[in-house]
TrEMBL record:
Endpoints of the signal sequence: none
Record PROSITE patterns: ABC_TM1
Homology family: Belongs to the binding-protein-dependent transport system permease family.
Organism of derivation: Georgenia yuyongxinii
Protein name: Carbohydrate ABC transporter permease
Domain ABC transmembrane type-1, first and last residues per copy: 41-228
Cell compartments where the protein resides: Cell membrane
Length: 243
C-alpha cells in the first residue's frame, strides 16, 4: 500500500516497476488538495472522539453497577449485543433517524457508533471495577463520602489503566467503522473509510490516490496504537488476571 502510494498510476500497472520506480508525492498532493479527504478526516475525528466520550460517560457507571451489584445477566446481554452483526441495528436506526431528519448529522453517526463502542467499554471495565477492593469504598464512606463520591474519587483513579484501554479501543473501532458511517452519514458527513470509495469510479480506479488516502487514514491510528501499545496490553492483562 505504501509503495503503491508513491508510484504514478502508470507505474502501478507496470510489473517492471514493482520495485524499480521513481518515487513521487503527487498522489498525496492530489489527495490533500483536490479531494474531500481533509474534510472527511475532520468528520472522523469529531465522530470518533464524540463516540468515545459518550461511551465513557455512560459505560463507566454502567460497568460499575454491574460489577458491584453482580448484575451478571446484564453483562451477558452486553456480550450478546457485541456478537450481533451491525446490519441488525442499521435498518431500524435508519428508519428512526430518517423520520427525525437526522441522517447525515454528527448525532446520527455518534449514536450509531455507540452500538459498537459502549458495550466494549462496559465489558472491559467490569473486570477492573471488580478488582477494586470494596473495603476502600467502605472506608471512604465512613469518612463521609457518598457512593457516588467514592466512585469518582476512589474507584475511577484506581481504574485508570482500564479506562485508558477502553478509550483507545473505542476510538480505534469508531475511526475504522464503515457500515454505519456509509448509510447514516450520507454525503454530508462522510468519514475517512467512506471517502476512500470516491477514488473508485465506474470505469476506472485511481489506485495511486486510493493508496495514498488509505495510508493517510491508517497512519494516525498506527502511530497512536504504537505509542499506546504497552498501555493497551497492560490494561487488558491487568483486567484479566487480577482478583
Amino acid at each position: 500500500m505504501i509503495v503503491s502510494s508513491l508510484k504514478a498510476n502508470v507505474d502501478i500497472y507496470n510489473p517492471d516497476k514493482l520495485l524499480a520506480f521513481t518515487p513521487t508525492l503527487q498522489n498525496y498532493g492530489t489527495v490533500l488538495t483536490e479531494s474531500n479527504i481533509p474534510e472527511a478526516a475532520q468528520h472522523s475525528v469529531i465522530v470518533a472522539v464524540g463516540a468515545t466520550l459518550v461511551s465513557l460517560v455512560i459505560g463507566l457507571p454502567a460497568a460499575y453497577a454491574i460489577a458491584r451489584y453482580s448484575l451478571r445477566r446484564t453483562g451477558v446481554v452486553l456480550l450478546l449485543v457485541r456478537m450481533l452483526p451491525g446490519i441488525t441495528y442499521l435498518v431500524p436506526w435508519y428508519i428512526i433517524l430518517t423520520k427525525l431528519g437526522l441522517v447525515g448529522s454528527y448525532f446520527s453517526l455518534i449514536v450509531s457508533h455507540l452500538v459498537i463502542t459502549m458495550p466494549m467499554v462496559v465489558w472491559i471495565m467490569i473486570s477492573f471495577f471488580e478488582n477494586v477492593s470494596i473495603e476502600l469504598e467502605e472506608a471512604a464512606r465512613v469518612d463521609g463520602l457518598t457512593r457516588i463520591g467514592a466512585f469518582f474519587r476512589i474507584v475511577l483513579p484506581l481504574s485508570k489503566p482500564g479506562i485508558a484501554t477502553a478509550a483507545l479501543l473505542s476510538f480505534i473501532f469508531s475511526w475504522n467503522q464503515f457500515l454505519f458511517s456509509m448509510i447514516l452519514g450520507a454525503s454530508q458527513k462522510k468519514t475517512l473509510p467512506v471517502a476512500l470509495f470516491d477514488f473508485i469510479g465506474y470505469a476506472s480506479i485511481d489506485w495511486g490516490g486510493l493508496m495514498a488516502a488509505a495510508v493517510l487514514m491508517t497512519l494516525p491510528v498506527f502511530v497512536f496504537s504504537l505509542f499506546a501499545q504497552k498501555h493497551i496490553v497492560a490494561g487488558l492483562s491487568a483486567g484479566a488476571t487480577k482478583g
